[in-house]
């Protein structure tokens, strides 16, 4: 799906002027009156964000938010509400809403929030892509060259040690490849999706 912003507005009281404004700003927009149609269009690989407006149907909007978060917990969902009491805002944020916007809002304010959400989505997808690349890299043998019995034993030890939740002490002369081994251990471990320190 090419649209950068999908607006879900069952009562269609906000979507027309907002769509017109966002398109004038160069943002691609698609509007849906039914949640089901929007859910069919989004996926964990989709690069856009959601802007929802359920007006008097707040409970329905919260259910939709929960369904979106089941599909992709990191997908930014901006909720526009007519009446935003503190308990409602807290509840929406706890459920994973990116932001809760109270009507009336200025075009300048909503544009700033949307651009921030789109940037967050871009960074999330870029991070996923990089993690996927790390996860599909070849086994340590490609990083530690050699077919001698010692090198085979080293690779096997790295494979086993990488799966264990324990500290590993690497010793050896300068230039023998301790940093390379540390990197290989990290990429074989359950922590491979976290920062290598």
Descriptive terms for the model:
7 helices, elongated, 5-stranded parallel β-sheet, 197 residues, single chain, alpha/beta
> Uncertain runs with pLDDT below 50, 5 residues or more?
138-142
Overall structural class, as computed from helix and strand content, comes to alpha/beta
* Order of strands in the sheet with most strands: 2-1-3-4-5
Distance between the terminal alpha carbons, to the nearest Å?
37 Å
How many strands, which pairing sense, and closed or not: the largest β-sheet? 5 strands, parallel
Q: What can you tell me about this protein's structure?
A:
Helix 1 links the parallel strand 1 (5-8) and strand 2. The longest helix is centred in the middle third of the chain and has 29 residues, at 107-135. The chain has 197 residues and is α/β, with parallel strands linked by helices. The protein has helices at residues 15-24, 35-41, 58-71, 86-94, 107-135, 149-162, 178-188, and strands at 5-8, 29-32, 49-53, 77-81, 99-102. A 5-stranded parallel sheet has the order 2-1-3-4-5, with helices on both faces.
List the helices and strands and how they pair.
Layout: E1 5-8, H1 15-24, E2 29-32, H2 35-41, E3 49-53, H3 58-71, E4 77-81, H4 86-94, E5 99-102, H5 107-135, H6 149-162, H7 178-188
Helix pairs in contact: 6-7
